[in-house]
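<instruction>
Derive structure tokens from the sequence
<entry> Chain with its tokenised backbone below:
===
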Amino acid sequence: MSKRPLRAGLIGLGAMGRHHARVLRALDGVELVAGADPAGDPHAVLGGTPLVADVESLLELRPDYVVVACPTAHHERVALALAGAGVPALIEKPLAHDVPAARRVVEAFESRGLVAGVGHIERYNPALRSMRTRLEAGELGEIFQVATRRQGPFPNRIADVGVVKDLATHDLDLTGWVTGAQYTTVAAKTAHRSGRPHEDLVTVLGELDRGVIASHLVNWLSPLKERVAIVTGERGCFVADTLTADLTFFANGSTVTEWDAVSVFRGVSEGDMTRYAIPKREPLAVEHETFRDAVEGKADAEIVTLRQGLRAVMVAEAVLESARTGATVPAGCV
């Protein structure tokens, strides 16, 4: 006798919610029972799936778990309603609009022993997953630096947070995840160039434990869409392009230089370049499969925990505090 599918609900049917709906409708072992959005279904992604107005109406349908893809400003209220009803939740990043709200969400789910995760989707990108595996295996040796660039045009869907919490949280989370290190301090500068109330450009210089230095360039001002993460270490560097899910390794050169005028300069030289052939699956589909497995109780389902999501919000607020004050700010003391 086959087991019944998990009954999933979705809150928020906007630009990101429509992709969650598409994946949920195709996900093995899961039935999308309803979508909730007071603005309706503007992208017509539900098909014949019922549409309700709010989280309370969705809970009346007794879902086994719910995906939260509404604007960040509503994450706390919706998450607390789900936790209060005993319903597991996958919450889009950032976990909440500020650190106190994120802490309340963590406590609500942890105190009830509920499965809950945060949608830091870059952790499911094939290029970054392959990079992390290789770093853990010591292929790069000691890690010196992580540099990321995440830039592109302004997404009109974003109105309640700036580029730090909406975009930079990707880089703040993936940097700690791929290196196994944590931020200790951050120094940042932000800019408001497009006339919106929130920042649309940020540069971050961070120091992590283990001596790792990080730098991040993030903006909504560039016509060039770019998603690149570069990790440099004692044996060379990995370059991950998360738009194409490509991973390339640039090795330090080992050729002896006989030209005296050049050999006096100490440092690395160019070596071999390897572009890895890696399986490429849609990160959002992998994220949903992983969360489904966690709800089913599978121990090897590596979801992004609420505490990891809280950490990203803490570092993001340290970035904003540094930009406001001009000081270097401890990353864990906001």
The CA atoms of residues 261 and 267 lie 14 Å apart. The first strand starts at residue 6 and ends at 11. The two ends are 52 Å apart (CA to CA).
